[in-house]
Amino acid sequence: NAGVMQNPRHLVRRRGQEARLRCSPMKGHSHVYWYRQLPEEGLKFMVYLQKENIIDESGMPKERFSAEFPKEGPSILRIQQVVRGDSAAYFCASSPPTDRGYGYTFGSGTRLTVV
Amino acid sequence: SQQGEEDPQALSIQEGENATMNCSYKTSINNLQWYRQNSGRGLVHLILIRSNEREKHSGRLRVTLDTSKKSSSLLITASRAADTASYFCATLEYGNKLVFGAGTILRVKS
């Protein structure tokens, strides 16, 4: 079991470009969560998705950010027209459909740098 | 919004000592979880305690939960240099949303 796979590990974008971050959940996990971590801060919830559905996007900025989890393939977090303030580590986590008491499994993150 | 708030923000101890970190939260929860993050890495799940539990052990870890005070503590006994990391509490709100605190930075000196 490969765990939660995120790619790329590091991403550099110029201001105004688009950033696409990918997350493949653990096998058997149908729930995906995206978090953002600014330097020396905790993780801030962004969005919670199930296959083909956005369940809770209360942490997503209103503009430029979108997320999807299609029927086939990884979950994608898309940031359009990136700005320097988008520079952060973005973590994806997954969990099974029912609470088995094991917590979430996190990927290693994508570190986005906007130059 | 931030749910869990940890204290202290930073803790420095000698190897072999115990480390205690506290977490407070604001809303009703399903469970509370503790995670560790090594510098520049992802989060690793340590232990989960349900809202109807008061104490839980896992190896050198001991977690307590007081729902009346909306607080939890994480005790690491006989600390090792390898325990140096940031520790986060996170509360699972109803609706499956895991909300993190700002974390405690633990440094264990050998």
Rg of chain A computed from alpha carbons, rounded to a whole number of angstroms: 13 Å
Task: Give a quick account of the main beta sheet of chain A: strands, pairing sense, barrel closure.
Answer: 7 strands, mixed
Oligomer: heterodimer
Q: Which overall shape of chain B is indicated by the principal axes computed on the Cα atoms?
A: globular
E-strand count of chain B: 11
Average pLDDT reading of chain B: 91
**Residue runs with pLDDT of under 50 for 5 or more positions of chain B:** none
CA(first)-CA(last) distance of chain A: 36 Å
Residue share in β-strands of chain A: over 45%
Instruction: Give the N-terminus to C-terminus distance of chain B in angstroms.
Output: 37 Å
Structural class of chain B: mainly beta
Mean pLDDT of chain A: 92
| Greatest contact between two chains | A-B, 25 and 23 residues
- Proportion of strand residues of chain B: over 45%
Shape of chain A: globular
Tally of contiguous helical segments of chain A? 0
What structural class do you assign from the helix and strand content of chain A? mainly beta
Order of helices and strands of chain B: EEEEEEEEEEE
Q: What value does the Rg of chain B take, in angstroms?
A: 13 Å
Helix content of chain B: under 10%
Give structural notes:
The complex is a heterodimer of chains A (115) and B (110). Chain A is globular and about 40 Å long. Chain A is 0% helix and 49% strand. In chain A, strands 2, 4, 5, 6, 9, 10 and 11 form a 7-stranded mixed sheet that branches. In chain A, strands 1-3-8-7 form a 4-stranded antiparallel sheet, with no helix packed on it. Chain A has 115 residues and is mainly beta. Chain A has no helices and 11 strands. Chain B contains no helices and 11 strands. In chain B, the strands form 2 sheets. In chain B, strands 2, 4, 5, 9, 10 and 11 form a 6-stranded mixed sheet that branches. In chain B, strands 1-3-8-7-6 form a 5-stranded antiparallel sheet, with no helix packed on it. The model of chain B has no long low-confidence stretch (mean pLDDT 91).
